[in-house]
Amino acid sequence: MNSMVEQPPVIPQSCVLFATADWDEPYWTNKQHCAQSLAELGTRVLYVESVGLRSPKAGSAKDWGRLSNRLRKGLLSLLLGARERSPGIFVLSPLLIPAGHRHPATRALNRWLLRAAIARSTWQRDFSRPLIWTYHPFMLDVIDGMETGPVLYHCVDDLAAVPGVDAATFRAAEARLLQHANVVFATAPALAEHCKKHNPNSHFLPNVVDAEHFGKALEPGPVPADLAHIPEPRLCYHGVLSDFKIDFQLLLDAARLKPEWSWVLIGEEREGQSSSRLAELAKLPNVHFLGYKPYSVLPDYLRGMRVGLLPSLINDYTRGMFPMKYFEYIAAGLPVVSTPLDFTRTHNAGLESGATPENFVAAIHRQLGSGRFSMFQVSELVGSNTWQGRTIKMLSDLGYAE
Q1: What's phi and psi for 263, nearest 5 deg?
Q2: What is the distance between the alpha carbons of residues 370 and 366, in angstroms, rounded to a whole number?
Q3: Tens of pLDDT along 243-275?
Q4: What is the DSSP letter of 39?
Q5: 212 pLDDT band (50/70/90 cuts)?
Q6: From edge to edge, which strands make up the β-sheet containing 336-338?
Q7: How confident is the model at residue 177 (pLDDT cuts 50, 70, 90)?
């Protein structure tokens, strides 16, 4: 009799990852980073791009542009299959009806189209019982009947609270996914509590950071020319300038309270948005909009900043949010000032918070006084909160060996 105990595989041989963001989105989030980490561990990943959670707006040129781009990419995927966009990562751009999950007929058509595309791609790449890693629930019908490994739901946002998403349909589908998933990881305590109502194997696991990349801001070097001429002290926000995520009124009032500080915003407005408060901010001489900057150069800009800002609105969407920018700022050596989101109750290292313009300004003043973090302090503050470390933790909880 063989007394050898069969050991679990070190990593999954393959993974189908259902994302809510396209691979080439300018602002990388959990989806792309986790796919990259899995591939670096040796897992072959089929990255299935966004299925379109919200209906396009008839009057939005950006929405129509995205539809046109998706149609082009969808036809390419239909003709050529999933393409290897990074070592070990094969990107599938599904040719689907946007927000087709809302109606039975379009849902059935989308299910057939997506199942056929995934079956072809997994057969071509010889995927065997792939791990299912998903960021949304509209994939359950697609994997029904597939020979798969375990199902992992990575809940990183309260997507039902996003404007334009059919909340009732999403909640019903998510409840089914939570009952089906082997394990659930949520990036905020409120999201974890919500998930535990349907799946007791739900865990709070906060967002992390590419410490090596953002740590480049700690190295000596010049700052970009469009930043160098802006007077110090410079306070920074980077990311999408979204009117349902950012408290522009708070920023406007705070910038007026402190005209001697330079408020620097790196990013573009959310598609389909035209905020009057953002327009007012642009009129202030101490507020500087630098536009979108590629991920690769963000450390160069953060090198020239003194404080990282998280001026988030407090609403149903942001309440369950753990901003990735928190650890990105920390890794770049920046003390952080945030509005009092739920995550600030459990993560307050290097962080001050304020709810009113006066309190927000007072928190910034304290952080300016403490100065930027040293490399040693950054190492202590970031700790094991890296993409690779967290991916291994998640796989370990699924039964894969380290």
Answers
A1: -100, 110
A2: 6
A3: 888 999 999 999 999 999 999 999 988 665 567
A4: H
A5: very high
A6: 287-291, 262-266, 234-238, 307-310, 336-338, 351-353
A7: very high
Return the closest-CA partner of residue 251 out of 238, 263, 240, 262: 263
Distances from the Cα of 342 to the Cαs of 75, 160, 347, 353, in angstroms? 42, 18, 9, 11
d(CA 170, CA 100): 12
Q: Which position has the token pair 């798969």?
A: 148
Distance CA 290, CA 2 (A): 66
pLDDT value at position 58?
46
State whether residue 203 is helix, strand or coil. Answer: strand
CA 245, CA 243: separation in Å to the nearest integer? 6
How far is residue 211 from each of residues 34, 346, 379, measured CA to CA in Å? 14, 20, 9
Edge-to-edge strand ranges of the sheet holding 183-186: 83-86, 89-92, 44-48, 14-18, 131-134, 151-155, 183-186, 202-204
Report the SS3 class of residue 237: strand
- Please calculate the CA angle 295-212-135 and round it to the nearest 5 degrees: 60
Q: Which residue has the tokens 């050898």?
A: 4
Looking at the DSSP assignment, which residues form a beta bridge with residue 46? 16, 90
Q: How many whole angstroms separate alpha carbon 35 and alpha carbon 189?
A: 23
**324-331 and 375-382 are packed helices; what angle lies between their axes, rounded to 10 degrees?**
150
Residue type for position 84: E
Q: Collect contacts of 381-387 with beta carbons under 8 A, ≥24 apart.
A: 381/330, 381/349, 381/350, 382/209, 382/211, 382/327, 382/330, 382/331, 385/206, 385/208, 385/209, 385/211, 385/327, 386/208, 386/209, 386/210, 386/211, 387/33, 387/34, 387/36, 387/37, 387/208, 387/209, 387/210
Yes or no: say if 255 and 263 are a contact pair by the CB < 8 Å rule: yes
Q: Name the amino acid, one letter, at 272.
A: G
Q: What's the pLDDT score for residue 64?
A: 44
DSSP label of 16? E
